[in-house]
Amino acid sequence: MQAALIVGLIELLIKEAPAAIAGIRALLAKKDPTAEDFAAARAQIAKDTFEDLVPNSDKFPVPPAA
Amino acid sequence: MKKLRNMIGALVCAVSLLVVPIGCSGCKSPARNAYVASGVTHVGVVAGLKGWNEYLGTTDTRLVALEKTDPDKARVERARIAEQNAKLATAYKQYQAAQLTVLTAAEEFSKTPKDDPNSPASADRLTAAITASSATLASVLHLLNEFGIKTN
User: Fold this and answer.
1) Do A50 and B99 touch (CB under 8 A)?
2) pLDDT tens for residues B19-73?
3) ipTM > 0.90?
4) Given A13, A38, A42, which is nearest B11 (Cβ)?
5) d(CA A23, CA B144)
6) SS (H, E, C) chain A
7) b/e string for B106-123 if b means 16 or more Cβ within 10 A?
8) How do residues B55-65 score in pLDDT, each as one tens digit?
9) What share of chain B is helix, strand, coil (3-state, %, to 5)?
10) Chain centroid to CA A46
11) Closest partner CB to B6 (pick from A12, A37, A45)
12) To the nearest whole angstrom, how far is the Cα of A57 from the nearest Cα of chain B?
């Protein structure tokens, strides 16, 4: 039953985020990450700022304190 | 929002499956596992935040319409969502910092020979970084899940 649950969850993830799965496949293909791989991974995480990922944030500015 | 919640739930379980092998003392290349898990986690978190962004867009459209008929109610709801968004932004930045620490620790561990006297300390630093990172990831996912439930 647990295996079926896991398969179902992975199927849901694949269905909902096909682009995400493509990225995951690329990661899994790495046998031994190099210094360049680690540097690239850090750069990617640093590049993905909240403001870039959630541009609609600017529609919900925090109101100034009363 | 149901789609977002389903995706978040699946992500939590998928990432949990990956975190377990990192802690396995007999597993090969913990540094590689940490590298892969970090990347998988980030893919999932980015997907979750994009879902949140989509939700903000549709909610803004709804509130713009509501402002014409009930501006006070619209203002209160907009402020509530702004507070949620601010919390999520803080949690995500903490997660980002933790992930960078994991990757740095993993790289250091991968470069340290097993017979090096510094190897145990390097392994401990990697384990600590992963533990801290898991906590920040849990915060992000908890908030996304919490906000999804309240807005349904």
Assistant:
1) no
2) 444 444 444 488 888 998 888 888 888 888 888 998 999 999 999 999 999 999 9
3) no
4) A13
5) 22
6) CHHHHHHHHHHHHHHHCHHHHHHHHHHHCCCCCCHHHHHHHHHHHHHCCHHHHCHHHHHCCCCCCC
7) bbbbbebeeeeeeeeebb
8) 999 999 999 99
9) 90, 0, 10
10) 13
11) A12
12) 7
Inter-chain CB pairs, A–B, below 8 Å: 125
- The pLDDT, as a whole number, for residue B41 is 85
Within a 13 Å sphere around the CA of A2, how many CA atoms are in the beta-carbon half? 3
Residue that has been written with the tokens 């533990």 in this structure: B131
A28: number of CA atoms within 13 Å, CB side? Answer: 10
Is A5 or B117 the better-scoring residue by pLDDT?
B117
Is A33 within 8 Å of B81 when comparing Cβ atoms?
no
CB contact under 8 A, A62 and B104: no
Q: pTM value?
A: 0.78
> What tens digit of pLDDT does each residue of B113-151 get?
878 777 788 888 999 999 999 899 889 988 988 887 433
Listed by number, the residues of chain A in 23-52 with a beta carbon closer than 8 Å to a beta carbon of chain B are 23-24, 27-28, 30-33, 35, 37-38, 41-42, 44-46, 48, 50
Of B10, B32, B50, nearest to A9 by CB-CB distance is: B10
Q: How far apart are CA B45 and CA B63, in angstroms?
A: 26
* Interatomic CA distance for residues B96 and B116, integer angstroms: 30
What gap in Å lies between CA B100 and CA A66, rounded to an integer? 37
